[in-house]
């Protein structure tokens, strides 16, 4: 037992240092970008006005408005928050996995739980199409990463409580519902359909509506309507006239969900990881009494409906859908991974419950995990990118370029200034100002710079490329 604990401890430390810490440290090379500068002058004295203006003009994400309007855009604070968000994600993954383990009677020790958490975190880093918008840009992280953190805690509580809604569980879930729906509307269909399924299931099981399930559905619907019907959301929708094509969006979402699911499940080396992880779980099921699982095909069907519903929101709202780019692509990949994990836990328990003597004799998980980790370290674009950034000094160059620009601005006595474009790195991007001084990026940047350095610039723009 001692040797096993020691082995997992060494393994966990190795995974943390080799596969996650390099990405954690990138937060200390970040700078404000695009929308961040628009919020730079936030203060407590104008806090309520900024939140109200956000809700009435910008969008209906009232929870996102609450922390986006805080004065948190000084660089040191900015970087600390991004670091904290990455740590918080790890905590949420641990809690989610723990909830699934409790529900499906998977006997994981604390060290195995941490091992599983690290593997899932690594899998997330591998699969996200644009790490910058997920981890290293506060405007994006606060709306997307934080929403998914809340969702993981939400699902973790549901599974850990075995879907039994006592007073405390109902209160926790209600708070998280408001946080999820109020922070990002893309997750609204996921929460609403999940709660509706619970309500219908509990009704057919007990032949009556469970009051606390009704309360949760009410909270979910109400918090969703506050977002959807807000003046800000209606105003934002006017910028996307190609949206609001309901039937076309439904068809497109179904097809996209189908193709995305098939491609993702058979993609190398993730198919190897899913197989190895299933073996890892099935060898740790400690019993089959007291828990009922879904038929794997029903669980898969419900998961497909949830994924389709998530895909529907951006497709209907803006008129197009890209699952392999931007922050929306990040969220879709993350939601898909959550659903895959739920299905893996469910199918392993199903096999064990239906075939009590079911054993894996000729396949183990150690070698596939080693192959997976070695492959991503050598070939995954995100891992190759961060290795190249450190090896070639790109992160240091990125910081030097920013400091050079700020030094030029600080020492300038002109009222108009043309600045050299800053190139990003493999991992870090920059949504820079443009050559047009009247673009919103430039006006926000100018306002932040004037405030930061007590300047009075009338124009800040990029130099003409020609």
Structural notes for this entry:
The protein is mostly helical and 466 residues long. The protein has two domains: 2-26 and 38-69 and 79-389, no CATH class; 395-462, no CATH class. Helices cover 70% and strands 2% of the residues. The chain is built from 21 helices and two strands. The chain has helices at residues 2-26, 35-38, 47-58, 62-68, 75-103, 110-127, 131-135, 138-143, 145-160, 167-183, 188-206, 211-228, 231-237, 246-266, 270-282, 296-318, 326-354, 366-379, 381-391, 394-411, 440-453, and strands spanning 416-419, 459-462. A two-stranded parallel ribbon has the order 1-2. Helix 1 runs parallel beside helix 6 (110-127) and helix 5 packs parallel to helix 9. The chain is globular. The N and C termini lie far apart (68 Å).
Concise description?
The chain has 466 residues and is mainly α. The protein is 70% helix and 2% strand.
Write the layout of secondary structure elements.
Layout: H1 2-26, H2 35-38, H3 47-58, H4 62-68, H5 75-103, H6 110-127, H7 131-135, H8 138-143, H9 145-160, H10 167-183, H11 188-206, H12 211-228, H13 231-237, H14 246-266, H15 270-282, H16 296-318, H17 326-354, H18 366-379, H19 381-391, H20 394-411, E1 416-419, H21 440-453, E2 459-462
Parallel strand pairs: 1-2
State the main characteristics.
single chain, 466 residues, mainly alpha, 2 domains, two-stranded parallel ribbon, 21 helices
Task: Please report the total strand number as a whole number.
Answer: 2
Average per-residue pLDDT, rounded, comes to 91
Structural class: mainly alpha
**Any low-confidence stretches, pLDDT <50, length ≥5?**
none
Distance between the termini: 68 Å
Report the portion of residues in β strands: under 5%
Oligomeric organization of the protein chains: single chain
Radius of gyration: 24 Å
Percent in helix:
55-70%
Order of helices and strands: HHHHHHHHHHHHHHHHHHHHEHE
